[in-house]
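agent> Task received from the user: take the single chain below, predict its 3D structure, and emit structure tokens. No templates, no multimer pairing.
agent> Plan: (1) validate residues, (2) run structure prediction, (3) serialize to tokens, (4) report one or two observations.
agent> Step 1 OK, no nonstandard residues flagged.
tool_call: predict_structure(input=
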Amino acid sequence: MSTATPRASDTRAGLVGRNILNKVPEVTVYFWIIKILCTTVGETGADNLSSRYNLSDATLAYYTGAVLAVVLVFVFAFRRYIPLFYWAGIVLISVVGTLITDNLADNHGVALHTTTTIFGIATIASFAVWFAVERTLSIHTILTLRRELFYWVTVLFTFALGTAAGDYIAEASGLGYWKSILLFGGAIAIITVAHLRFGLNAIFAFWAAYVLTRPLGASIGDYLSQAKKDGGLALGTNTTSYIFLGTILALVLYLTVTRVDESPPDPEALPA
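)
tool_result: status=success, residues=272
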């Protein structure tokens, strides 16, 4: 029986073998489509819950936050990415982030530019702490519970930031919904070109686009659901939410069967 001390490379290989796959999906076209659909549901779903159950945004945030916590227990319990649990978590985080921002603005009188600043600082702080502890912000290295916690906390802040910034630009500035769609969609396109053609850092480009998909999805949701007199298409929050939830479910089932978005870990940034 050999008594040789295991090499670092052997330990890292064993870590990969135990986890097999990264805990978040590969960044494919499916990822971005579902992400935008989720952000749209976050906007229309939060509005729909508020109008249907006549509860305060704070109360709804507590309830949906509790459901989110249960879903995240399942997310953390599995050693690999499970599309159904992961995307259920993203939908719920989108709803919770919207409710938190709306509660601060509508019920506590906190101005949208203030909430944008607050959540902007919180998002930057979460990135700073995450990097200080783990030395990477790559989503290809979500292999430990601690990194999962950093990831999901950061995602929550990005959703809250995107909601506040999107509402501020679309409503407080009077830009309107369809113009906001063009604005945020154009910003994401610029980031994409900067990354693919001019070498913009991949991690920075990903998170910048990730933040911007929140106000993009919210603007799409508002444009489809709000009354025509307010610049929307008057589909209503109920219809819009069901359409997008159905589309999300169909795509998630497809990914569950095909497993085309499973992401292998990055061997260059594994935990020491």
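agent> Step 4: summary for the user.
The chain has one domain: 24-259.
agent> Done.
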